């Protein structure tokens, strides 16, 4: 049986975004990271616009892949430099 892709379900996407936003609002450190649950490993599933729309952190860990993003909500001084 094929594994269901949660990103194809609007409800699963909304739930993931809600959980993600809750984690980000309470994250205590300037450089924030969040590891996607194994069920949601899909590095290309979230677009830059979607990540910015939910206030994504500067560093997003999706499974074993790290993706750097700057958010509109984060002050420029807190955006890590490469």
Question: Care to describe what's here?
Answer:
It comes from Mycobacterium gallinarum. This is Alpha/beta hydrolase. The structure is a single chain. The protein has 82 residues and is an alpha+beta fold. The chain has one domain (6-78). The protein has helices at residues 10-25, 48-53; strands at 59-62, 65-68. β1 and β2 form a beta hairpin. The relative contact order is 0.17.
List the helices and strands and how they pair.
Blueprint: H1 10-25, H2 48-53, E1 59-62, E2 65-68
Antiparallel strand pairs: 1-2
Mean pLDDT: 54
How large is the count of helical segments? 2
What's the SSE pattern?
HHEE
**How does the major sheet shape up?**
2 strands, antiparallel
Strand arrangement in the largest pleated sheet: 1-2
Task: Kindly give the count of domains.
Answer: 1
- Unreliable stretches: 29-44, 68-79
Name the overall outline: globular
Using the CA coordinates, give the radius of gyration.
13 Å
SS content category: alpha+beta
Protein name: Alpha/beta hydrolase
Keywords:
single chain, 82 residues, alpha+beta, 2 helices, globular, Alpha/beta hydrolase
Produce a short descriptive summary.
With 82 residues, the chain is an alpha+beta fold.
